[in-house]
Design goal:
single chain; 128 residues; alpha+beta; Ribosomal Protein S5, domain 2; five-stranded mixed beta sheet; 5 strands
C-alpha cells in the first residue's frame, strides 16, 4: 500500500495526515501522540475513527499539525484521519459518517467589529 494523504480543518487548526501500513504508530510534528496530546480525552478523540473501524494497530500515521488550540487540533486530526481511511476503503464511509467524523465543523470565530469591545458586545450606554 502506498502512502495516503488527507487534510482536516477545525477553527484555525489544519492537520495534514499521511497514512501507511504499519503497527499503529501516530507521530505528530515528529513527536509521539502521548507526548503531543498528554490529555487522554484528546488522545481518545484522535483515535475515535480508528477505534470505530477496529484498525488501531493496522496503520502508521504521520501528521503535520498547525494553528489553533489543542482541542481544535485534535478535532482537525480526527477529520483528516477519517478522510484518509475513506480513501483507503470507501465502504467505511457510512460507519464514519453516522458517528459524525466525516463532517467539517464550520464554526469559526466571529471577527471583532470597529467601535465595539468584542464581536457582539457593545460599550455600556450612558444617557448623560
Amino acid at each position: 500500500m502506498e502512502v495516503i494523504n488527507a487534510l482536516g480543518r477545525r477553527k484555525a487548526a489544519v492537520a495534514r495526515v499521511f497514512v501507511s501500513e504499519g503497527s499503529g504508530q501516530i507521530t505528530i510534528n515528529k513527536r509521539d501522540l502521548s507526548v503531543y496530546f498528554p490529555s487522554p480525552i484528546l488522545q481518545y478523540v484522535v483515535k475515535q475513527p480508528l477505534n470505530k473501524l477496529g484498525v488501531v494497530e493496522k496503520y502508521d500515521i504521520k501528521v503535520n499539525l498547525d494553528g489553533g488550540g489543542f482541542k481544535g487540533q485534535a478535532e482537525a486530526l480526527r477529520l483528516a484521519i477519517s478522510r484518509a481511511l475513506v480513501k483507503i476503503n470507501v465502504d467505511d464511509k457510512s460507519a464514519l459518517k453516522s458517528e459524525g467524523f466525516m463532517t467539517r465543523d464550520p464554526r469559526e470565530v466571529e471577527r471583532k467589529k470597529p467601535g465595539q469591545p468584542k464581536a457582539r458586545k457593545r460599550f455600556q450606554f450612558s444617557k448623560r
